[in-house]
Amino acid sequence: MGELSPFDHNRLDDVIHGRIRLGVVAYLSAVESALFGELRDQVGATDGNLSAHLRKLEDAGYVRAEKSFVNRKPQTRLSLTAEGRKAWRAWLDRIDALRNAAAGRG
Questions:
Q1: Domain spans in the chain, listed from the N-terminal domain onward
Q2: What is the dihedral of CA 22, 79, 41, 54, to 10 degrees?
Q3: Residues 88 and 29: beta-carbon distance below 8 Å
Q4: Model pTM?
Q5: Contact 100, 8 (CB under 8 A)
Q6: Three-state SS for 24?
Q7: Quick one: CA torsion of 24, 25, 27, 28, rounded to 10 degrees?
Q8: Which CATH number fits domain 14-102: 3.30.470.30, 1.25.40.10, 1.10.10.10, 3.10.350.10?
Q9: How does pLDDT run across 2-28, given as a tens digit for each residue?
């Protein structure tokens, strides 16, 4: 086995790489936590679509959801886990490597 190609896209985390999940992880990496509605508005998703993507991120251990009630209304607060932050940094590093390879700096 030789050295991996700098253009190897197979090491991109597919859990993060989906468009909505990418937006979710990027937004959550910039804040301590976000309410479901805030996150939905930031990534431009519907409630159902965002819920499905959040489930996949939760199953991977990347996102934590804390449910509570405020004034008798359900509220979901979401945040990246330590594992999620690690996966986000790895995804960014891989994208940087691909970008550098394409620019001839790889």
A1: 14-102
A2: 60
A3: yes
A4: 0.88
A5: no
A6: helix
A7: 110
A8: 1.10.10.10
A9: 567 777 777 889 999 999 999 999 999
